């Protein structure tokens, strides 16, 4: 009978996780993060509501695995390349109020958050709400990277300077609070004093990083990544289990091992297809079970029986707001009040690490079950309240898109015609050439502004800020030098690197590093074949009246509008929609969303009209 009840509870939780996003879509609850909705559904079916979910070994195991996988994906979400980006202050010398590196701003803001959190925690200890100031400091200072990232994406803020700064603050908070949580466990756990054993865990992480870096591009591994073998996925799960087991062995929490595994995989720049598989498995199965069970285990009614715990909820919510809003005032030097306040609001979101800290604190006997529930409830409230406020303040104050900075290394017949065609309103172009390579002086003087270099030495180009760009095109006459420069630029964190190579083997190596490759020979061959086989396709790409255009959907008014209900009736056809990593063939029931990149064709005047409507809102 117990087995039957166990399976019944599992089915109820699975059904709850399945129907939650469907109900949110039908009710158009766009402002609520899905994970928060899952916790609320858990409250309804759990101890606070109908109480139809019983204790189950199945659910306990799957919930634990979901928590571990959530911490792994939290580590995987960290893009370490953003720490290598220097910003564009050197390029944009016309700014009246130059902003220092986003990394330094983020570090200063987070240190201020940590210091203020420590002070607020001391006040909570003085008030008798909690005995451990260390634990409360972690709870107040943490920021939910899992909520910040999608919120920034929805608000079209990811590529803005302020968006990058917010993201960096959240990343640093995620890293530091996770490490401090491990230190907390080593101090206050059953085996206190074994903090030095954490060095074994981090030492193992460093060793595994170098092993992974050594073998990640091996040909035999690529062959085994397909079909029924899927060696990449197996390697990731082996890494998670190994580091989780090692983490528990040295006396730390298993979530630290999972987080470290995610950070390692992120450092190794995994294949995007593999990342999508891991996201699908985590957020499609294990993680929803965990969040539903978080809600199931909270007994809200018991909180009303303890006045102190009940009073803690609004006070902690205010403390979370103060701990973020006050430190971000540092940013007022470079941004207006709306941007600063909206930044503080989105940084107030806390969820995963608060749940982790509260769960660990309850398990260690530092806080009781009621206090744990109150802490999680406040974390849920921050995710319900602050993202909508951020969107309200920020959407109407989006920074204008900066010109994309493009550097061309090597000026020749392949690059010069392209430079002439690029729109100066959209691209800020820099061109570099060596004195050793012949170049028509008449062209140089009359049309192009080309910087001459003594050589294509990477150190020299680094000093000249050649790599401080959004896009780097490498097209010298030496393929090996192209590959060397492109690889270095990618390691430096240049967002897009395009290299000219003709050798198939070298082509493959660069693509594995995330570098776009073009070949004059192959391009000419493909164009000639297309002219013979499908001349109409070439016409679309080359003729002005039937050309393809890219339009960015930035107008919130048409967010989630169906194409068949879209009011624009001009002579324009939507050919493709690029949404994140997805490529969508549009039809009448396809929704337009903020951030979409639309590929359209039609008369130029109608395309310009549609562009004004979607990109500029008029």
UniProtKB/TrEMBL annotation:
Organism from which the protein derives: Sediminibacillus dalangtanensis
InterPro entries from the xrefs?
Answer: Cation/H_exchanger_TM (IPR006153), Na+/solute_symporter_sf (IPR038770), NAD(P)-bd_dom_sf (IPR036291), RCK_C (IPR006037), RCK_C_sf (IPR036721), RCK_N (IPR003148)
* Short name of any one Pfam family annotated for the protein: Na_H_Exchanger
The alphabetical list of record keywords is: Antiport, Ion transport, Membrane, Transmembrane, Transmembrane helix, Transport
- List the Gene3D superfamilies hit by this protein, alphabetically: 1.20.1530.20, NAD(P)-binding Rossmann-like Domain, Regulator of K+ conductance, C-terminal domain
Q: What is this protein called?
A: Sodium:proton antiporter
Query: Does the UniProt entry include the keyword Transmembrane helix?
Result: yes
Q: Which residues cross the membrane?
A: 6-24, 31-50, 62-82, 103-127, 133-153, 165-189, 195-212, 233-261, 281-302, 309-330, 342-361, 373-390
Q: Which residues form the RCK C-terminal domain?
A: 534-616
Subcellular location, record wording? Membrane
Membrane topology of this protein:
Multi-pass membrane protein
State the similarity comment: Belongs to the monovalent cation:proton antiporter 2 (CPA2) transporter (TC 2.A.37) family.
